[in-house]
């Protein structure tokens, strides 16, 4: 059990370090399917692991000067406002329905990731937030601010509901509405995830949520995986990585859905 927790945590952290997204989506089913946690018990462990791992990745991005930190704070503010709404929504759903809903979310994300893998290399057309070539910063307009806030709100809602980091919303959102490069989008996403997940995890821990020794091993392994992922990220082709990630997420979604229905 302990070795399984370490291995799964390392994979989750590495995924987050490589892609800036998806770590939380894989963390929750890993905890549920391999370690026997319920969705309610898996959420805080996943949030702690993802939040701390994202913080490490964010510090690396800040060191390299590629984090759009003003945008990150703005997106995170919207996410922090919406995260409690997600937590309230998931608590009124029966456990079986919440598990099936999460499985469906994973399937949709897997399909979208598979279709959008080509865009990981070609990029998106900027739509609303453009970088000023003189300052190297976003030109802040009302349209830009509102679109960034919408991305943060969606990520925060899903973070509160399922204990995911929301990077699968933030990275493609930034790529779609801005001309930030893929590495800057990933690093900015990690900063947002660290802020929103950290807030949500702290709220849960203040509510006397227990993590346990196995959970903390998972967290530590995720931190180590994040460090490895950030080292390898510049050298890993984006398109094959996203294809593999989409496949793993799709299979995990099916297995999780079947497991929920069986119980």
List the helices and strands and how they pair.
Layout lengths: L1 H18 L3 H11 L5 H26 L4 H23 L3 H21 L3 H4 L19 H21 L4 H11 L4 H25 L5 H21 L5 H25 L1
Family: Belongs to the 4-toluene sulfonate uptake permease (TSUP) (TC 2.A.102) family.
InterPro entries: TM_pro_TauE-like (IPR002781), TSUP/Inactive_protease-like (IPR051598)
Protein name: Probable membrane transporter protein
Kindly state the mean pLDDT as a whole number? Answer: 83
Shape: globular
Helix content: over 70%
**H/E order of the elements?**
HHHHHHHHHHH
Query: Major β-sheet, in short?
Result: none
Q: Cα distance, first to last residue? A: 22 Å
Please work out how many helical segments DSSP would assign.
11
Cα gyration radius (Å): 17 Å
How does this structure look, described?
By secondary structure, the chain is mainly alpha-helical. The protein contains eleven helices and no strands. It has helices at residues 2-19, 23-33, 39-64, 69-91, 95-115, 119-122, 142-162, 167-177, 182-206, 212-232, 238-262. Helix 1 (2-19) crosses helix 3 (39-64), helix 1 (2-19) packs parallel to helix 10 (212-232) and helix 7 crosses helix 9 (182-206). The chain starts with a helix and ends with a helix. The model is unreliable at 120-125 (pLDDT under 50).
Brief write-up:
It is a multi-pass membrane protein. With 263 residues, the protein is mostly helical.
Features:
single chain, 263 residues, mainly alpha, 78% helix, globular, TSUP/Inactive_protease-like, Probable membrane transporter protein, TM_pro_TauE-like, transmembrane
């Amino acid at each position: 059990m302990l070795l399984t927790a370490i291995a799964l945590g390392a994979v989750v952290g590495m995924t987050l370090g490589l892609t800036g997204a998806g770590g939380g989506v894989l963390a929750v089913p890993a905890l549920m399917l391999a370690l026997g946690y319920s969705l309610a018990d898996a959420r805080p462990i996943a949030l702690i692991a993802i939040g701390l791992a994202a913080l490490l990745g964010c510090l690396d991005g800040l060191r390299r000067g590629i984090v759009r930190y003003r945008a990150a704070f703005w997106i995170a503010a919207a996410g922090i406002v919406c995260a409690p709404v997600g937590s309230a929504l998931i608590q009124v759903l029966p456990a079986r329905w919440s598990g099936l809903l999460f499985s469906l979310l994973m399937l949709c994300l897997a399909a979208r990731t598979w279709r959008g893998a080509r865009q990981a290399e070609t990029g998106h057309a900027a739509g609303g937030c453009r970088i000023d070539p003189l300052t190297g910063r976003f030109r802040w307009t009302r349209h830009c601010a509102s679109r960034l806030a919408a991305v943060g709100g969606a990520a925060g809602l899903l973070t509160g509901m399922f204990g995911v980091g929301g990077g699968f919303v933030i990275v493609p959102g930034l790529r779609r509405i801005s001309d930030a490069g893929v590495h800057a989008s990933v690093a900015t996403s990690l900063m947002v995830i660290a802020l929103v997940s950290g807030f949500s995890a702290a709220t849960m821990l203040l509510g006397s949520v227990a993590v346990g020794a196995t959970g903390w091993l998972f967290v530590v392994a995720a931190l180590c995986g994040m460090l490895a992922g950030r080292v390898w990220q510049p050298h890993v082709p984006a398109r094959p990585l996203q294809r593999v990630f989409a496949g793993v997420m799709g299979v995990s979604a099916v297995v999780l859905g079947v497991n929920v229905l069986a119980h």
